[in-house]
Amino acid sequence: MISLQKINSKILSRQRGVSMVELIVAMALGLFLLFALIEILINGKQSFGSANNLSRLQENGRIATNLITSDLKRAGYLGGNSNAAQISGTTPPQIPMSTCPAASRIWGRMIEQPIFGKNGTETVSYDCIVPAWYLRGDLLVVRHAAPWVETGALSANRYYLRSSLFSGRTFIGSAEGNAQNEVTETPNSVREILAHGYLVGLSGRTCNDAVVPSLYRIGLSDAGLPERNELLPGVEHFQVQYGIDNQYRNANEISLARWSDVTTVRIWLLVRSECAETGYVDNSTYTMGDVNYVVNDSFRRQLYSSVVMIRNEI
Q1: Which residues neighbour 8 within 8 Å (Cβ) at sequence distance 6 or greater?
Q2: Is the peptide bond before 96 cis (omega within 30 degrees of 0)?
Q3: Is residue 208 part of a domain?
Q4: Phi–psi pair at 286, nearest 5 degrees
Q5: Domain total in the chain
């Protein structure tokens, strides 16, 4: 008769450890689960990156469009007075020109030309624009009085307008007290004259060796001279057309005398991600104004457009 002790000893000897086959199967299952987890993490990271790029594109596109359209809605606004011919002063308005002297204050003084533009590469012929600033697209210039009223001390070299419903005086801040700059009618107010030029240039920053384009705005410095400031990164192209009579025209189709006849402005902004996106391909053709812009790379893009009516035509 076999003792119970011997039976238990045989059972225990069979249950001790795992076989080589079982070990290999367990390792294979573990590696499979590990690779699956890594794949999930990679896909999740790519999905997050795509969503983040799209969100930034939408945000930058909305901001850029709102900045330009808000400026356009004020074009030609001169406080209470809408007639630039009634404005004089110690620094009177400058007769409109098709150029922009770089070392002169007269660019900001062309208030009889609330809208102006350059088409495509003609932008580099605008003297206050350094060729290295320009990347592609059009130039849009907008001039108007500030929507806010000056209540404190004026900057010595900035350009201001004191206006009522019937007259106006323009001057630099240091000449505010000159008798030639007085307006007798009431109410009257003092506002800064703003001149803005919008264009696309290179930011100088890179992402994976690709230079990031940006929307820039030329404004007036404290010295009253044109200076460039970056507004938003990722704006790759900018196109503008101008409504005169019953048709839209490019800037090079408008004579100097007819800029005051512009009643609407149509803009296109092409915004792209700052960095290329792995696994994504954009080989689209973007139609904007007189341009068909062809791309073939891995940047995400969105095209924005808007039409603005000029409310303060002179």
Answers
A1: none
A2: no
A3: yes
A4: -105, 120
A5: 1
Distance CA(78)–CA(312), nearest Å, equals 8
Could you give the C-alpha distances from 255 to 83, 113, 118, 141, 311, in angstroms and in order? Answer: 21, 12, 11, 15, 21
Of the candidates 285, 295, 289, the residue with the CA atom closest to the CA atom of residue 117:
289
Q: Tell me: the pLDDT tens digits for 221-236?
A: 999 889 999 999 999 9
Give the SS3 label for residue 155. Answer: coil
Tell me the per-residue pLDDT of 139-176, one tens digit each, with 9 for 90 and over: 999 999 999 999 999 999 999 999 998 889 999 999 99
**Structure tokens given for 88:** 């004089």
CA distance 101 to 108: 10
Q: Which residue has the tokens 């990347």?
A: 135
Q: Is residue 5 assigned to a domain?
A: no
Q: What is the DSSP letter of 221?
A: -
- As given in the structure block, the two tokens for residue 61 are 């596109």
* pTM for this model (two decimals): 0.83
Burial of residue 294 (CB within 10 Å: 0-12, 13-18, 19+) is exposed
User: And the tokens for 152?
Assistant: 């404190």
Say if residues 72 and 266 touch (Cβ distance below 8 Å).
no
Q: Tokens 């008769």 belong to which residue?
A: 1
Q: For residue 114, is the peptide bond before it cis, meaning its omega torsion is within 30 degrees of 0?
A: no
Domain containing 275: what range?
76-309
